[in-house]
Amino acid sequence: MTEPRRTLNRPPSNRAGLAAPAPIIFGFTDCQDTRKALRFFAERRISVHFVDLAERPAARGELRRFQERLGAAVLVDREHPRFRALGLHVSGDSPERLLARALTEPRLLRTPLVRSANRVSVGHVPEEWKAWVQAERRAGMEPEPGRRLSS
Fold it and tell me: CATH fold of 24-138, please?
């Protein structure tokens, strides 16, 4: 069987029939903002993948992705009681060093951490998530019930 020929003016579709990757929400089940993020996507019938940081800490690569886009200082929650309990409020560590510490102490992170394809957000930012959903609709890829949100 011969391979189909491609035309020069139209790239091949790499999404034919494939579901887009689901947004991933990193957070804690006892975090109000994480529950708000889960509810936001559930109300729009967009399936998500939830990672409970209490059971499974974020991987170094995942945190690096958020750090590259938003900066290390944004990811660290300096207001959380765990930050003070560890004495980090007086230690003067750099945000990068605090982020490395967050690999073993996930409560140091601001939650929820939300990633959808190449987009990332930290904290409760429904305006940003709405923009993601609207961008999907404008691209003609409106998420149907049970469909996943893509880039």
Answer: Glutaredoxin (3.40.30)
User: CA 56 → CA 18, 52, 62, 106, 125, distances in Å?
Assistant: 28, 6, 12, 9, 23
Q: CB 113: neighbour CB atoms within 10 A?
A: 26
Strand partners, 113: 26, 122
Q: DSSP 3-state assignment of 121?
A: strand
* pLDDT tens-digit profile, the chain (151 residues): 555 544 444 433 444 444 557 899 999 999 999 999 999 999 998 899 999 999 998 888 888 898 889 888 788 877 767 667 766 655 656 666 776 776 778 888 888 999 988 899 999 999 999 998 888 777 765 555 555 555 4
Closest CA to 73 of 31, 24, 114, 110: 110
Q: Taking the model in full, what pTM does it have?
A: 0.72
CB 62, CB 49: distance < 8 Å: no
CA distance 33 to 123: 7
Say if residues 72 and 95 touch (Cβ distance below 8 Å). Answer: yes
Q: Where are the domains of the chain?
A: 24-138
Query: Measured at the alpha carbon of residue 108, what is the angle toward residues 85 and 114, in degrees to the nearest 5?
Result: 155
